[in-house]
Design goal:
- The complex is a heterodimer of chains A (about 575) and B (about 550).
- Chain A is about 60% helix and about 5% strand.
- Chain A is built from 28 helices and 5 strands.
- In chain A, helix 10 (about 255-275) packs antiparallel against helix 11 and helix 11 (about 275-295) runs parallel beside helix 14.
- Chain B has about 550 residues and is of the alpha+beta class.
- Chain B is about 50% helix and about 10% strand.
- In chain B, a hairpin with a 6-residue loop joins strand 8 and strand 9.
- Chain B starts with a helix and ends with a helix.
- The chains are: A mainly alpha (about 575), B alpha+beta (about 550).
- The interface between A and B is large, with 96 and 115 residues.
Chain lengths: ~575, ~550
């Protein structure tokens, strides 16, 4: 807008100044309302309408409205009309800090354009280079709202002292570097060829149809299609990483590669925090393939390239990642396994920390599956988390180590058996039974005498895996005097475990327990008899079957039913016996 | 010498002299790169005027002499502290290389007078003989109050040594050569640069008056009368170019010093250029080409940016994509800041080792960009220009060496063409003048189809013309001209619109026009080396 279009100073003094102050105040509030209230809300609508009305009044009186933005100030013709220091406020805070120095609203502005403008300046900043308001305003190109960015005011904000130019850059031979680097092919021959071509063209150009310097619509479309390859920001990111892959591949200098590794490490962290695990996976894969597969690199350079794969995330980044993974149908969750696989085992501590903060079973399960390979290859990286104060994390880590079957984890898991939380002890016990360690059996057998009933039950359950070696321990527990005092569930678990472990050898003892006892030859309680039937079924064999057949004619319908279901189970589990 | 008063005087002289030297050099360099329309240029010019006038008002006159490698302020040899030594040496060099032994001034001056002196100095680097005569003539023709003399005349000036105290009180002890008071009338009438390259502000006030607003046929015949204030459109283009130039300078400088770069400035500078190019690409191309005649280093980045955006426009890229392309072009040479100074300064051919070092600049530039911008969308665009601008279209040649699967992107290919064209349009060390721009184009066309994308190259020629915009050409009529605009009709590629240069009237001439006999009114017979142009010509070109 030419200066002559500016509101005249006198006009401002006489009329517009208070009106302008009011309009600017409404502008600031309206922009804030966009941030606070959802689209279509009455408050927002009212602010926009008030602002539109105020602007229209001013348009009529003074024409275009030009506002200048200073630090915490809105000015009209060098007069401060609004003072507000909040940097996060849309007006003037964000406008100023995002490089907007002037706004000019011109007649013709309507409510729709104004609303769109307010939504733009009222939106919260992400701090990205891409979304500063000066750029967004430029990209949006409002027909009735002009802006001036600070860069157009070179000399005020962007100071430059030519005297400080390094001598080399002002050297008259600097340009010769470019000339030499371009004239790699015989320059004279190339220029002569070009001149001959032009001379030839000059003589024929007006006789031909002159397509010589044109591109066809097909060619143009083909060229433009290259730019439309990237569908959305995620795809664009992958293309960027592909370009960086070429850059890293071309770099042979150790210092350069170390610098690139650092940059990529930052990128990896950023992508993870932003929830783009697909991009993060690509960055990790890029680093890993260079760290592991380039024969031209020395050990320190490889180490530098591998360093980001340890994924040293800060505490708040881990919180962000957890939030992302816990979102319903999280896209991040779909890529977490691939990302973990692209990293190195040294990232385990970070992921264990994530595991410790996850609340959603689905997310925990996915993470546990992804971490399982590292538990096998590097169990020692998990061990510190067996001492974590969060029992549920300890339990999950124990589970991972147990699944790994890695003997190196035995000692650490043994320690967890003393954990105050029974669920942890239980998991540790199961884990220990899965570990192929010399002391694993002894631990499980001794746990049959643990004071904790649930742990004893788990121990009994786990014993089965050791077969005949578990028989004496189970038998001893069953014959023990206090066995009769234990709750029925535990007794049932022990009896069944005994049946499974001892097979045929278990039948005599089980039969003896079915016999009537005491002065009045009272039969054992029905629940115990039912448990014994199950144990016999688990033991299998002809003698057990015969015993169960006999019991199936008992007078008690409950016992008959229990015996028959035990027989059916026996038939299922040992079909040859049934045949 | 032990006289305390002398010591005080000497300190004061040194202080004023250093102020003047600093202001002179700052204004000279700033105007050379920015033009006086720019705020930075105007500010520097203002400082120079103040420094000159302060001395004239204090001492009665300004008298700067160059004796061998030393600078004398009146009769006092400047002995600058270490911190100012480089500045004083640079100012001495600027004067000495033009054969100036003495620069004097007897009255206060205005902005126009100062700007005319500095612009005149900038137009002639003194490498060809007779620079002092040419400069003196130009200043005289413009009624400029500054006087220039050869060293020999000064050496014979009576009383020049050992009379410091007298000098301070009686400046007439020196021969004040050609002291000429400046009046508003003389200043405005005698400053052809008043409108050229200025928008509002720095000069062109006072006598410019309403007569400057219009340009009639008679004005076209009289260059000086043709002065007028630049159009708002031209001023906006100048502003956009100046901003981009300032940003380019700051970036290169920051990269050199290993400092962080604020990318938003570059992005916004490019956005302004995009809007100007979308508005009128020929004007921006012409202005960019002609402004850069004297300083390749910084203009190169901006020129490549302008050429790339204009080519993108021809291709049909949307506005936002043009801005990304501009960013790609603006940063393409960032890695040069990491090439060792001794190689940058080398005038001869590179050894294979040196060449290998320079060949790393796309890589170091890409790394620098990644360091500053991270893996962001903006970095993506910038990386394409920086990393790929020396890769060949075939993907197999050029540098840095890339894996076989990597082919340069569209942005990379566009920047490669623009970069090569601008680089080869520059003056070689062994040349006295810039080579014809058409030669650079011929070189591109002579490369075959492996180096540059043939489709983009065709479009490029279509855009800049067979005789590229900004080229100086010889006409069949014997006149010389600058190519201003390329006709839309490709059959008229050899018949662009030109601006005829002095001697003779300055004006626009459409070479596609034919006379009654059906023959063209005039024709280009050859391309000429590009001379440094009078800024006035810019008014016609852009």
């Amino acid at each position: 807008m030419p200066p002559s279009d500016l509101p005249h100073r006198d006009a401002l003094d006489e009329f517009a100044s208070p009106e302008l102050r009011r309009a600017v105040l409404i502008l600031a509030r309206a922009a804030k309302s966009v941030r606070l209230y959802p689209a279509g809300s009455d408050v927002r609508t009212r602010f926009v309408r008030d602002l539109m009305a105020a602007f229209e009044e001013l348009f009529e009186q003074i024409g275009p409205i030009r506002l200048t933005f200073g630090k915490g100030q809105v000015l009209v013709d060098q007069e401060v009309v609004l003072q507000h220091d909040g940097r996060d406020e849309p007006v003037p805070g964000r406008l100023y800090w995002d490089g907007v120095r002037e706004l000019c609203f011109v007649p013709g502005l309507d409510e729709a354009e104004l609303t769109e403008f307010l939504e733009l300046i009222g939106s919260p900043s992400t701090g990205s280079e891409q979304d500063d308001l000066a750029t967004l305003l430029w990209a949006r190109r409002f027909p009735h709202i002009e802006h001036v960015a600070l860069d157009a005011l070179v000399g005020t904000d962007l100071t430059f002292d030519p005297l400080s130019i390094p001598e080399e850059l002002g050297s008259p031979s600097f340009d010769q570097v470019d000339v030499q680097m371009h004239e790699s092919v015989d320059p004279q021959a190339a220029a002569a060829a070009g001149r001959a071509f032009l001379d030839d063209l000059r003589t024929t150009v007006e006789d031909s149809n002159l397509e010589v310097f044109q591109v066809s619509s097909d060619e143009r479309a083909f060229l433009l299609a290259e730019l439309h390859g990237a569908e959305g920001p995620a795809q664009a990111r992958l293309e960027l990483i592909e370009l960086v892959r070429a850059i890293v591949a071309a770099e042979t200098d150790a210092t350069g590669l170390s610098e690139l590794a650092r940059i990529l490490g930052n990128g990896l962290r950023r992508f993870i925090v932003e929830g783009d695990l697909a991009a993060a996976r690509e960055v990790a894969a890029l680093l890993r393939e260079n760290a592991e597969s380039r024969p031209d690199l020395d050990a320190p350079t490889r180490a530098a390239l591998a360093a980001p794969l340890r994924l040293p995330l800060e505490d708040r980044d881990i919180d962000t990642l957890v939030e992302l993974l816990e979102q319903p149908s999280s896209a991040a969750l779909a890529y977490v396994a691939e990302l973990i696989a692209s990293l190195t085992a040294e990232s385990t501590p970070t992921w264990c920390e994530v595991l410790g903060r996850l609340q959603t079973p689905t997310a925990r399960r996915r993470l546990l599956e992804a971490l399982a390979p590292y538990a096998s290859s590097r169990p020692e990286l998990f061990e510190p988390f067996l001492r974590d104060r969060r029992w549920y994390l300890v339990r999950n880590v124990a589970l991972l180590l147990g699944r790994s079957g890695e003997p190196r984890a035995f000692e650490a898991l043994q320690m967890v058996l003393r954990h105050p939380e029974s669920r942890v002890r239980k998991e540790a016990l199961r884990a220990i039974s899965g570990v192929d360690g010399a002391g694993a059996e002894g631990i499980v057998f001794s746990t049959l005498r643990d004071p904790d009933t649930s742990l004893r039950r788990w121990a009994a359950h786990t014993c089965v895996a050791f077969g005949g070696r578990a028989t004496p321990h189970l038998e001893a527990a069953i014959r023990a005097h206090e066995f009769a005092t234990r709750e029925m569930g535990e007794r049932a678990a022990f009896l069944e475990a005994y049946g499974r472990a001892a097979r045929d050898a278990a039948v005599p003892l089980l039969e003896s327990l079915l016999e009537p006892r005491g002065l009045f030859r009272a039969k054992p309680p029905e629940p115990l008899r039912a448990a014994l039937f199950d144990a016999l079924a688990a033991a299998g064999g002809a003698r057990a079957e015969s015993t169960l057949l006999a019991q199936s004619h008992d007078r008690s319908p409950t016992i008959r039913s229990a015996a028959r279901s035990a027989l059916a189970r026996l038939a299922r589990e040992t079909p040859e016996a049934a045949a | 010498m032990s006289d305390p008063q002398h010591q005080i005087d000497s300190a004061a002289i040194h202080e004023r002299a250093r102020e003047w030297v600093r202001a002179f050099l700052l204004a000279y360099r700033t105007l050379r790169t920015h033009g006086r329309t720019n705020d930075v240029g105007a500010q520097a010019l203002d400082g120079f005027v103040n420094a000159c006038n302060a001395i004239v008002l204090t001492d009665g006159s300004l008298d700067i002499r160059v004796v061998e490698e030393f600078l004398y302020f009146s009769d006092t040899r400047l002995r600058p502290p270490r911190s100012d030594a480089a500045i004083v040496a640079a100012a001495t060099r600027e004067l000495a290389q033009r054969g100036i032994g003495r620069l004097s001034l007897g009255a206060v001056i205005d902005l126009n007078a100062a700007a005319t002196l500095l612009e005149t100095l900038a137009q002639d680097d003194g490498r060809s003989k007779g620079a002092l005569d040419r400069l003196s003539e130009r200043l005289q023709a413009r009624g400029n109050p500054f006087q220039l003399e050869e060293p020999s005349e000064i050496a014979s000036t009576p009383g020049e040594r050992g009379e410091r105290s007298t000098m301070l009180q009686l400046p007439v002890g020196f021969r004040l050569v050609g002291v000429k008071p400046t009046t508003p009338e003389s200043a405005s009438a005698g400053s052809p640069g008043g409108g050229a390259g200025t928008g509002a502000g720095a000069g062109g006030s006072g006598g410019a008056g309403s007569n400057d607003e219009e340009l009639d046929a008679e004005d076209a015949v009289k260059p000086r009368a043709a002065l007028r204030r630049a159009s708002p459109k031209r001023a906006r283009t100048e502003q956009a170019l100046s901003t981009a130039l300032a940003v380019s300078q700051v970036y290169l400088q920051s990269a050199f010093a290993g400092e962080r770069i604020e990318m938003r400035h570059g992005k916004r500078a490019v956005q302004s250029l995009v809007d100007r190019i979308l508005d009128d690409d020929s004007a921006v191309l012409g202005l960019a080409a002609l402004r850069s005649a004297d300083n390749y280093t910084f203009h190169h980045g901006v020129n490549v940016c302008v050429l790339s955006i204009a080519l993108g426009k021809r291709l049909g890229l949307p506005r936002e994509r043009l801005a990304e392309l501009g960013v790609a072009a603006l940063f393409h040479d960032l890695g040069k800041a990491h090439v060792p100074p001794e190689i940058l300064r080398k005038k001869g051919a590179f050894t294979p080792e040196e060449r290998a070092i320079v060949e790393r600049h796309p890589l170091t530039g890409a790394r620098e960009l990644l360091r500053m911008m991270g893996l962001t969308p903006l970095a993506h665009a910038a990386l394409l220009g920086c990393f790929e601008h020396h890769l060949w279209f075939d993907g197999a040649s050029g540098y840095p060496r890339v894996s076989s699967g990597h082919r340069p992107s569209l942005f990379g290919r566009i920047v490669a063409i623009a970069d090569c064209f601008d680089a080869l349009s520059t003056k070689r060390v062994y040349m006295k003048e810039r080579p014809p721009r058409a030669d650079a184009l011929a070189y591109l066309l002579g490369q075959g189809e492996s180096k540059f994308d043939p489709r983009l190259l065709r479009l490029f020629v279509n855009m800049v013309g067979v005789y590229p915009i900004g080229s100086e050409v010889q006409l069949a009529s014997g006149r010389t001209a600058i190519v201003k605009r390329i006709p839309e009709d490709a059959s008229l590629s050899f018949h662009p619109i030109v601006v005829t240069l002095p001697p003779g009237p300055i004006g626009e001439l459409d070479l596609s026009e034919r006379g009654v006999d059906g023959r063209y009114v005039d024709e280009i017979t050859s391309a000429l080396p590009l001379h440094t142009l009078d800024p006035m010509v810019l008014d016609f070109v852009a």
